[in-house]
Amino acid sequence: MSIEEIRRAPEPLPGARWTQDFALGLWHIAPLMVGAAPFGLLMGALAAHKGFGPLEMLLMSGTVFAGASQFVAIDLWRDPIPMLTIILATAMVNLRHVIMGAAMQPVMGRFGRYQSLAALFVMADEIWILAMRRAAQGRLTPAYYLGLGAVFYVNWLFWTGIGTVVGGVIENPARYGFDFAFTAVFLVLITGMWRGRASVAPLVASGTAALAAHAWLPGVWYILLGGIAGALAGAFSGAQKS
């Protein structure tokens, strides 16, 4: 089935078909919900040691809903809050969502306007992969996506909220290696974005700029400068090939 045929496909039948698609989405996302639990607990534990309570954590998870960006924000969180740095750093981390959303748009023909906006709000890496796989089969429906996104969203809120309660009783998270979470997040992102030789220049430029900034500049400028250097190197190498 072509993308145009998917776009023009009629709405799924109500009743049993809707329930079936929703249940299938829930079934497909269930293993990933289990995998997200320790990640959410860790997120909440780290936030608790930055002064977050359960309500603040639920508000952050509910409005941001982006684990990697939340780890970045928590790592940068201090008094006074470096608001601009946090905004720019988290925007860089989640810039991939722009490309992911653009890739998904052609296969959302069954979605209404508000359904599309809600779907994009709860779009995470895991949800996007499963939704695109379903779309390749010509069967991506709002009910299926709701089974993926809604329950994964609630799952993330639940475990990050519990994490603040658990984390509040842990006196020294670094003792258990919790302070490595920020580094681990970026290692995972780098692994996922690796594209062979084309990735070498951006990674080298980003790493060099970040190390230099960390050594010579106060604060967390190494995050912003490393991201900018990597983006410029990627753009420059791409322009040379075209």
Automatic annotation (TrEMBL):
State its location(s).
Cell membrane
Q: Does the keyword Cell membrane apply?
A: yes
State the source organism's domain of life.
Bacteria
Q: Which UniProt keywords apply?
A: Cell membrane, Membrane, Transmembrane, Transmembrane helix, Transport
InterPro entries cross-referenced by the UniProt entry? Brnchd-chn_aa_trnsp_permease
Task: Name the principal localization, coarsely classed.
Answer: membrane
Membrane topology is: Multi-pass membrane protein
What is this protein's name?
Branched-chain amino acid ABC transporter permease
Organism (species): Hypericibacter terrae
